[in-house]
Write a structure and sequence with these properties.
The radius of gyration is 19 Å and the shape is globular. The strands form four sheets. It has a four-stranded antiparallel sheet, sandwiched between helices. Strands 4-5 form a two-stranded antiparallel sheet. It has one domain. The protein is α+β, with helices and mostly antiparallel strands and about 300 residues long. It is built from eleven helices and ten strands. Helix 4 packs antiparallel against helix 5. A hairpin with a 2-residue loop joins strand 9 and strand 10.
């Protein structure tokens, strides 16, 4: 048992080392027209148990369509979930957005800064390249591996609450112990809420990172003591209130600014196109860390 744990820890260190190197060296992690700037800084990398009961709960929390890790691996390799190995793991990462980009977006009040918009669009392309890279190194080692967000079965749908996907990277990050949600629906990690996140499912045995949060909103100041709501004040769409995040209002506002993924695919205009908004993720106490007030309270305990 101890030997097995040591092997898993060694494997995890190897994965972390490779991801860090890819992020450091990949030319895709560079700001368009400003190649001296990386889009993302050093990542947070954690691991989840692919059979954590939490993944079945997501079928109720998000939609019955939401896939479990075992289902994604089964769909990819055309196997029944019970035909897969006993141990299924998830590699999850948080890609913190650099200070220069966050600072540029703090000044905005109606829409994203150019750096923020570029990071939202080109940064996700880099995130996809990282998903492919991690999948490739695992399969080259003889393991099954898949990035569900890149698969044909990955879908975005909508219900009465707004848009949702059948593989939520934020909820995967929660399962991996990366942090909790905020009032804006964003995910507050140890590096804050301004980030992108991604994941890969594999049958490589990896150590499970502890999930220490007692509740899904533990890192949010509003949940902590009813204060803050700065993200709500920052939202130009009025989509964030004490009741939470209105996805439809948010989406409608972005489209009023000219947000159109189909247009981006045709040809992204670096000067005029809008990708995302991110005002609720900058100039807030949770922008680049868990709010200090919460950190101090935990230390006192």
């Amino acid at each position: 048992m101890i030997e097995e744990q040591l092997l898993q820890e060694e494997s995890s260190r190897g994965i972390i080392r490779k991801i860090n190197e890819f992020i450091r060296s990949s030319p895709l992690n560079r700001m368009p027209r400003n190649e001296d700037l990386r889009m993302f800084s050093k990542p947070l990398i954690k691991f989840a148990d692919g059979d954590d009961p939490f993944f079945n709960e997501l079928k109720s929390i998000i939609s019955h369509e939401h896939l479990t890790p075992r289902e994604t691996l089964g769909l990819t390799y055309q196997k029944n979930p019970d035909e897969l190995p006993d141990k299924i793991s998830i590699i999850n990462w948080i890609l913190p957005i650099i200070e220069t980009t966050r600072r540029s977006n703090r000044k905005e009040t109606a829409g994203p800064s150019r750096f923020w918009s570029h990071t939202r669009w080109f940064g996700e392309k880099f995130n996809n390249a990282l998903r492919e890279y991690v999948t490739d190194i695992l399969t080259e080692m003889g393991y099954m591996a898949v990035a569900p967000a890149l698969q044909p079965y990955f879908k975005m749908n909508s219900n009465e609450k707004g848009l949702y996907t059948n593989w939520s990277e934020r909820h995967i990050a929660f399962a991996a112990g990366q942090g909790t949600f905020g009032l804006s629906d964003g995910f507050i990690s140890a590096k804050g809420i301004a980030h992108r996140c991604g994941s890969v499912v594999t049958d490589m045995p990896l150590p499970v990172s502890p999930r220490t949060a007692k509740g899904p909103y533990d890192n949010c100041l509003f949940s902590f003591d009813g204060s803050c709501k700065i993200c709500a004040a920052r939202c130009p769409a009025g989509a964030i209130t004490a009741k939470g995040h209105d996805k439809k209002k948010c989406s409608d506002y972005l489209h009023s600014l000219g947000y159109s993924p189909r247009e981006f695919e045709k040809g992204y205009d670096l000067d005029t196109s809008i990708a995302g908004c991110g005002l609720c993720q900058t100039k807030t106490p949770c922008e680049y860390r868990i709010p200090l007030k919460i950190q101090r309270s935990r230390k006192e305990k």
